[in-house]
Prior knowledge:
Blueprint: H1 2-9, E1 16-20, H2 24-33, E2 37-40, H3 44-47, H4 59-72, E3 77-81, H5 84-87, H6 94-103, E4 109-111, H7 118-127, E5 132-137, H8 156-172, E6 176-180, H9 184-193, E7 198-201, E8 209-212, H10 214-217, H11 235-251, H12 266-280
Parallel strand pairs: 1-2, 1-8, 2-3, 3-4, 4-5, 5-6, 6-7, 7-8
Amino acid sequence: MRKIKEILNKKGKEKITMLTCYDYSFAQILDETGVDIILVGDSLANVILGLEHTKEVSFEEMLNHTKAVSKAVKNALVIADMPYVSYQKNIKDAVYFANQFIQLGKAEGVKIEWFKHCPEVTESLIKNGIPVMGHLGLTPQTVEELGGFKVQGRSKERALEIINQAKILEKIGVFSIVLESIPYKLAKIITETVKVPTIGIGAGWFCDGQVLVLYDLLGIYKKIKPKFVKVYADLSTSIRKAIEMFIQEVKTEKFPTPKESFSLDEEIFKKLLREKDAQMG
Length: 281
């Protein structure tokens, strides 16, 4: 709970940084940089597993990746994204699956997206001692109900709905709220209305913090590039060049060299050659 309190205390004082992560190696790097929150996001479905929809990712897949990330992290707050099947398919299963993320996955909290039964599920999780991060605006797990991947809250009615949802989540006791793909002025109103931190993704600069998908930030995942993504490094080009160089060096016998190889005592080598010649001759 110490890390949760630290996040809560940052509101209005210091911007919060959050990035998605799905594996041990990247998690270790992120933790060393000082990022505040590492989210094992259900975007795993798209960028790692090649699935079309985030709701297709399984609980087992999310749990395994949460375990991998948690093993590497010492400082950041690790949050597990609850997959659709773990709380929306049957709300009675939510506490069980959330506990698995905490007990087996070693996450310190879970994130759930707004849906019809979000308030009762959130309340149930918090009553069972599980810290919850809310998610409002564009909610990918139920995107069909929102008319597709488009900005939310542009009409007065929808904007008021999202504001009310934020108030409900705050009252229930979430420790933060992700605001996705909403106008920045609406995000400003919500950020100033609730006492818990807001973390934006496509919600402008007034939020208390920002989150991006790591593979978007690094320019690795290029199938889709939302407007709100900023590519800080084009690693896909660097990776491609490195692989092309590897292929070329293998085919031209420039790799491996003695530097990347292990030696054998010359006398043993000669004996082995004699035995080989004897067996073949």
